[in-house]
Write a structure and sequence with these properties.
elongated, single chain, Alpha-Beta Plaits, about 25% strand, 2 domains, alpha/beta, Rossmann fold, about 350 residues, five-stranded parallel β-sheet, eight-stranded mixed β-sheet
């Protein structure tokens, strides 16, 4: 059964909070026919109930109570990630517009005045439970689809920084490209499912490092990986480049640690990874058609990062001259003889990153 259908079929729970027993009795009388009811006679008791494993689906909260008033209870509920999404409807005899505005400002979704009108209360509760169900479903769908996107791209879409349609722009970016040395040849004898476990374990470890350094995971290409820094968010060209190099060095350290994981999956020959990094103006954004879009990057720096990777020694990181100009003061780098790379007429100056510190 679909999760949403399960939620709809379950009898939902309301938490009624009021210091007056007669008000709790009145509310319970006409709500208990449709909902499970929990009651609290103070703000402190309401918070204790909400700290239990089973959370209410909606809270009807009296505004004026001794000790903790409704404003403070609602504020604490909204500060707690576990209870933040529970709809809170304030129930009060006050009709002051200032209090109503304050209640909405601390996170309440609605305001019901006493004396109670049962049809009004029932309809308000029904509407806000339905809105919560829709929000929960959208959140589940969002989490599902976001697994197909870089966390940076998913965040950019939600913020509106990445818009719909075939739209792209030129930006200074730092591009990272990595490839496992002779992965296809070295894993040819492995069963497909074992090879997939190895590769997925590797990508899982690398993706955590990409996220830690705020890179945008552009795509996987077989056993290769491409990451960009500078879009959809940037901390400046120099810091983007430094973050990219720090990421690459952390990846190489992690790859050394993964050797035992690979050996456990039947691959005795150590695997190594080459990495290339280049900086320059790129076109980044949505490419494709009105039917299907890909958020990606194109430009000379993209090609150069891939070519530098191909020239790198196993387990090493090569960076372009443009990247070195931004990070050279922060990393120990060794200049290499000029390289001839495919697709570029002029020879390329590259540097091998040896570690952090003054070069």
């Amino acid at each position: 059964m679909e999760p949403v259908a399960k939620d709809a079929a379950r009898r939902q729970t309301l938490l009624l909070v009021d210091d007056a027993p007669e008000n709790l009795s009145i509310l319970s009388a006409f709500l208990s026919g449709q909902y499970r009811i929990k009651a609290a006679n103070s703000g402190a008791n309401a918070l204790r109930i909400c700290s239990a494993s089973e959370l209410p689906d909606l809270i009807l909260l009296d505004l004026m109570m001794p000790d903790l008033d409704g404003f403070e209870v609602c504020r604490r509920l909204k500060d707690d990630p576990r209870t933040r999404e529970i709809p809170v409807i304030f129930v009060t005899a006050a009709t002051d517009a200032v209090d109503e505005a304050r209640g909405l400002a601390v996170g309440a979704v609605d305001y019901i005045t006493k004396p109670f009108s049962p049809p009004v209360v029932l309809e308000r509760v029904r509407v806000h439970l339905e809105l919560k169900r829709v929000r929960d479903r959208l959140n589940r769908l969002g989490r599902h689809f976001s697994s197909y996107l870089s966390s940076e791209v998913a965040s950019g879409i939600l913020r509106g920084a990445i818009t719909q349609g075939v739209v792209n722009q030129r930006k200074p970016l730092t591009i990272f490209f990595s490839d496992i040395v002779e992965f296809t040849k070295q894993t040819a004898a492995l069963p497909p499912e074992r090879m997939a476990r190895m590769l997925n374990g590797y990508f899982d470890a690398m993706a955590d490092i990409v996220s830690h350094h705020h890179g945008t995971l552009d795509k996987y290409i077989g056993d290769a990986c491409r990451v960009l820094f500078g879009d959809p968010t940037s901390r400046g060209a120099a810091e983007d480049a430094r973050a990219c190099v720090r990421m690459a060095l952390e990846m190489q350290t992690k790859i050394d640690e993964l050797q035992s994981f690979w050996r456990a999956h039947g691959h005795g020959t150590p695997l190594s990874v080459r990495m290339g990094i280049a900086t320059g103006l790129c076109a980044v954004g949505n490419f494709g058609s009105t039917h299907q879009l890909a958020y990606t990057v194109m430009g000379t720096a993209v090609n150069l990062a891939a070519r530098l990777q191909a020239h790198a020694m196993p387990g090493r990181v090569l960076i372009s001259e443009e990247t070195y100009a931004l990070v050279g003061a922060d990393f120990s780098c060794r200049a290499l003889p000029e390289l001839r790379v495919k697709g570029l007429d002029e020879p390329v100056t590259a540097y091998e990153v040896e570690g952090t510190g003054t070069p």
